[in-house]
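Give me structure tokens for this 168-residue protein.
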Amino acid sequence: MSLVSEDDDSAEIAMRNALALRYNTAVRALRRPASWPREREQVARWAGSLLADETLTAVDVETTGLENAYAVQIAAVDRHGGVIFNEYAQPNAVLEPEAIAVHGVMPERVASAPTFAELLPVLTELFDGRTVVAYWAAPPKGRWGTGAVRPLARPGRQGVWGISRAEL
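Here you go.
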């Protein structure tokens, strides 16, 4: 006959889990650099300034895949959530099955769509003077740089396609 009931085991497991959580939280706090509170405040101010910006525009780009990806759909919304751009793009590249599973854009849908180069003048005018933000888990390697920056290197147009990536 056992002197420890199943309830005792459950209580002991719950207590161990609670102690482990407290320990892990303490370790994370100790590992934070001394600059963490200041950096957190800087990020909060940055995010607040973005949200206060009337020109804030969020962009989402669906691509052909993860490696050597090309745009197949580009969408943008203003700070109030209004759609200001939503177009398919002919990538002139094969759409990977994994990408199709994520975004559902089929090759037939983009076959007769304009190319990125054809959409670029419209995007340039649309984004001119706006604060544009985007998030990519893994940005398409060099596609914005090669596809966007060089065609816009013309007199009188500075900083239209400044590309940066913040590590937060």
